[in-house]
Amino acid sequence: MNIVLSLVLMALTVAGGSIAWPRFTNQPRPAPLEQVNSIVKDTPLGKSFANILGVSSQSAQPINVASEASKLTANIVKTAQERAAKIVVTQAVRGLLNQIGNLPAEDQAQIHEALCTPPQPAP
Q1: In terms of pTM, does the model score above 0.70?
Q2: What is the CA radius of gyration of the chain?
Q3: How far from the centroid of its chain's Cα atoms is residue 69's Cα?
Q4: First CA to last CA across the chain, in angstroms?
Q5: Could you write out the DSSP letters of every residue in 43-68?
Q6: Is pLDDT of 47 > 70?
Q7: How far apart are CA 2 and CA 10, in angstroms?
Q8: Among 74, 40, 36, residue whose Cα is nearest residue 56
Q9: Among residues of the chain, what percentage have pLDDT more than 70?
């Protein structure tokens, strides 16, 4: 059973690689992959897979791996910066709340009034 599963997985990998080849490089397919592609490309599954990858036509452009890696890195950095900013703000608010909580009741009332009372319109 494991041998059959391994053979099926290997066949799917080779078939998928033969279809996806133009997305990875501008070089022509090696002869064995070209033979597999000539068989697989005309099957319904092969056609749908080629359409999904955008390689159904001869004008398919390969993926620029460096550009995609750069975009991914930029997104990771942006997300990390946003998360760090959120943590800093949360800690600052907690610190202020702790300081206000340690003030005498009269001072707390003044702060509450200043923050919670809506401003009066100017006459």
Answers
A1: no
A2: 31
A3: 11
A4: 87
A5: SHHHHHHHHHHT-SSTTPPPP-HHHH
A6: yes
A7: 12
A8: 40
A9: 91
